[in-house]
Amino acid sequence: MADQPADQPAAQPAALEGVLRILQINEAHICGHMLQLAAELGIADLLAAGPRDAAGLAADTGSDPDALHRLLRFLAGQGIFTEDDAGRFSLTPTGDCLRSDHPQSLLDLLRWSTVVSRTFQDARYSLRTGLPAFPEAFGQPLFEYLRDHPEVGGHFNGAMAGFSRLESAAVTGAYDFSGARVVVDVAGGDGTLLADLLKAHPAAEGVLMEQPHVVVGAARRFEAEGLSARCRVVSGDFFDEIPAAGDLYILKSIIHDWADDDALRILTACRRAMAPGSRLLLIESVVPPGNTPGEAKLRDVVMLTLLGGRERTREEYAQLLGKAGLRLGQVVATRSPLQILEAVPSD
Ligand SMILES: C[S@@+](CC[C@H](N)C(=O)[O-])C[C@H]1O[C@@H](n2cnc3c(N)ncnc32)[C@H](O)[C@@H]1O
Predict the structure, then answer these.
(1) 256 is catalytic
(2) C-beta atoms surrounding 163 within 10 Å
(3) Higher pLDDT residue, 3 or 140?
């Protein structure tokens, strides 16, 4: 065996713990794929009425009985289902969240995740160019694709609503919204966050601005929740014009979708809409310093690959806001991976 060159330290044998960690990270995508497949087949809805065996489920889903049994057995090992001695599968409380009618349903989020998984097969393109891989994989930029493919668009909107349901209580509980008279949620998706805010603050009014094909779902939600009288829906393009009615503006999970030039265009449109006393809240996962692990660093590579966007550090947000004529004030932590960055006009 050749001697180690004098100027290179000898490689240390990796600790078993480190080796196992690498294997675990590497195999995580397989668990995700299996979960997404179960969501795609609608297994949780098929189990809602009670336990069933793999043969019956296979007949209902056009699957091979043995292959489906192996998928369900794997997911039972992950705590999604349980298998009894007669080979019948039931939902666990965790697996219940895959039902379409569960109040915290994650079904759309998992269906949307199959699109994310396919995009990541082209992630090498993003690495080479710094540009999003989504148009390479699907032939169109993400938001155009969602507009032209309503079924996938529905899964995306449902996935965003799923995140918002998880995050909404953390956001509304962390910041004092009591002084706001008119809250404008810019690109507020299906209105999940704004509806929760209006319910918590009966004197406040809301404006939800979204793309024309998304705004329809939000209007339906406000109608169903008895909020239509206090909430206006406006269709529009946040690169052009943002409604001028508000004293509190919200951009939740918006700025991270875009690279700096486009992010600045949105912030500048927002600044134009704001009166001198208005406030803007960016609700985002702020990238922590150093090697601290964090959801923001995962979302950051997802934003790169899907949209060419990015998660940012606190300083990067302060700089971007400054260029749009806004000054970053307090940054409020929430009980979720999100932080609330408050900004006001700088002049
Ligand atoms: C990541 S989602 C966030 C939705 C919502 N704020 C939330 O947190 O659940 C981004 C949203 O931006 C909207 N959007 C994309 N381009 C837009 C544009 N040019 N004008 C207005 N909204 C747009 C999309 O329809 C989508 O709902």
Answers:
(1) yes
(2) 19
(3) 140
Rounded alpha-carbon distances, angstroms, from residue 159 to 108, 140, 156, 276, 334: 5, 20, 5, 35, 20
| Whether pLDDT at 2 is above 60 | no
Closest CA to 268 of 253, 287, 286, 249: 249
Question: Does residue 198 share a domain with residue 57?
Answer: no
Amino acid at 263: A
Residue range 276-319, pLDDT digits in tens:
999 999 999 999 999 998 899 999 999 999 999 999 999 999 99
**Beta pairing class for 88-91 and 339-345:** unpaired
Ligand 1 mean position to 112 CA, how many Å?
15
175 and 323 part of one domain: yes
Asked whether residue 72 falls in the same domain as residue 168, the answer is: no
Give the pLDDT score at 1: 42
- Residue nearest (by alpha carbon) to ligand 1 atom 1: 253
C-alpha 32 to ligand 1 mean position (Å): 25
Mean pLDDT to the nearest integer, 338-344: 98
Q: Name every protein residue with a CB atom under 6 angstroms from any ligand 1 atom.
A: 143, 160, 163-164, 187-189, 210-211, 214, 237-239, 252-254, 257
End-to-end CA distance of the chain: 70
If you measure from the C-alpha of residue 265 to the centroid of ligand 1, how many angstroms do you get, rounded to a whole number?
A: 14
Residue 3 has pLDDT above 60, yes or no: no
3 found inside a domain: no
State whether 235 and 166 are in the same domain: yes
Judge whether residue 274 has pLDDT over 80.
yes
